[in-house]
Hints:
By secondary structure, this protein is an all-alpha fold.
Amino acid sequence: xxxxxxxxxxxxxxxxxxxxxxxxxxxxxxxxxxxxxxxxxxxxxxxxxxxxxxxxxxxxxxxxxxxxxxxxxxxxxxxxxxxxxxxxxxxxxxxxxxxxxxxxxxxxxxxxxxxxxxxxxxxxxxxxxxxxxxxxxxxxxxxxxxxxxxxxxxxxxxxxxxxxxxxxxxxxxxxxxxxxxxxxxxxxxxxxxxxxxxxxxxxxxxxxxxxxxxxxxxxxxxxxxxxxxxxxxxxxxxxxxxxxxx
Length: 246
């Protein structure tokens, strides 16, 4: 291949990444307007998605391609279990179910695992590289906008076994570029990564029912603060890479 897979994925998913950032839920999030109900539903969906990705990677850990991206230090299932307990209580396993869009996402992950497991590379890239790229910025937004105490409800963003996110991403990109795949397979992985972005967007759109309420509350609270003479709320404006898997 004339280009490595990492570059092909970065360039080939740019439009999908921009579209994901343009959903109302993400635009609100990046402005520091976060509705706790919607956010907890997102946490629930992410728990199911990561659990599925990681279970399938575990199943294929000896695969000649997937074994090259078998990094347990990236895995989010256990971290998300802590957040599920925080947002939903001790019986969350019985009460929280995947949403409709999430269920379709899970079905796709299991389908390709059974029939074309190399495409799991696309889902790992889309999710984990995005988390490493903007996780700390998004954690700060979540904490400030929902008034969360340190260590409460944001375990998802903590990669305790990765000291340097930038170095790890460099290593991961190198691993992508050395996967034993041909150009046709690389193109299929890029296509699947775009599909992954759109499945994530479908989950975001499900959460937009509370978006207007959250935005209204944000505006009302800002007005009250102004009338009281309190400092104006400063929203956090992260770099565009906050949710970019680069």
